[in-house]
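User: Please predict the structure of the protein below. I'd like the answer in structure-token form so I can feed it into my own downstream comparison script.

Assistant: Understood. Taking the following sequence of 495 residues as input:
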Amino acid sequence: MSQLCFAQVNQTFPNIVLINADDLGYGDLGCYGATKLQTPNIDKLAKEGRMFTDAHSASAVCTPSRYALLTGEYPIRHGNLNSPIFLKDKLVIDIQKETIASVLSKAGYATACIGKWHLGFGTTKPVDWNKPLTPGPNELGFDYYYGVPVVNSHPPFVYVENHNVVGLTEEDPFVYGEKANTKEVFEKMNLDDIGGADKAHALYVDEQVGTHLKEKAIGWMKAQKEKPFFLYFATTNIHHPFTPAPEFLGTSESGLYGDFVHELDWIVGEVMQTLKEMGVAENTLVIFTSDNGGMFNATGQKAWKDGHKLNGDLLGFKFDAWEGGHRIPFIAHWPNKINAGEVSNQLICNVDMLATFAAISNQELREGQGQDSKNMLEVITGETNKQIRNEVLLAPKKSSHLAIRKGNWLYIGAQGGGGFTSRTQGTHGFGGPAAISFAGQVNSDIEDGKLKEDASPAQLYNLETDINQTKNLYTLYPEKVKEMKALLKSYQAEK
């Protein structure tokens, strides 16, 4: 059905709920093969909707991935944005840019961002947390924002509503360099970076963050009466620290990691139940996805020992250019528009949401905006099996390892994964060849936790015949290497 016909028949645009989970790996859901944890609510989305097996985040890192999702631009176009930002960093998105929220707002949508922001605030560095945090989400098309300003692992451990820290008072300001009055939890970091604001910190209870953000998301949806609504729900689950509510503790066979996934699944179920109770489920597109692959942090390593494979059999983890870093779950649910139980091998990227939402709402993007975004509406609804996207640029943590996908071929411009490289098991930064060997994964460039001395200078894989990237084909296909290298350089020259 064309966009025009859709608008005429329904006389209104569909509601859109985009749930962007944090660090949820390709193998973290039952519908994608997990056996040591259960995700009945998310699995139900897949059974009633369309599940993608070749979906990717434009970056294997949280901040640049979210930049791509909101703007429709590869992060390389923002001065090689390739690392997470933290409490001192200003807003990384130019407020003149089109975003998924601003496009839908122009079409008459009510828009909200609930949850993790992690894209900075204001125009100066360091951020003054005692002043209004502007510009921020509200200046990028969101009518309402409520959530965790940076990330649940890093300060400040407070909530922000629109431009203000919730609970902040003039008598109790933030102070850089003091220890925060907040609970110490394993894999919760940098508590000494900013303190003060005790009342604001007291409102942030780690084990209640998931539930609290869920309540805010549901409350906002229920308040929407007149307009179609767009909710960008960026959960803190399942980013470290792993702090599920008490009722989820011990419910999985993969420790705190699995318990946190269980809480995420419950959150999704609560959102879906609310849509039904509101009577709008039939006219709501729900997209469930993740910002990057699963991370091999200390808790992730424990889950692995319990038999849970975060990214399934894919090579690598969050931060890597290997598939485990950026191939993500992606499920679209839209009753009467998407046939139930379909599985798609379409190449799709989170950078595509801008053009897709513009198509849904009959909006034209301004010239030069969302230049890397492809309209995937017909792919999401299953109206076409034709590949819309033939190539995608994929950014790991290290810019030296920028990767390009074309058709079934993936080229990585350096040796190794391009992510974390600590060789010490049990540490937060465990990664690279050492982690690959520890995980029992196989790659022809790696032996006994190290790169082989004769390993090729870069990497080429055929994902159609070797999705798990066991064999680097760099030396076997010099012409393909030349082609892919030139394609990659063309993007680097454009930035």
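That's the full token string. The longest helix spans residues 255-278.
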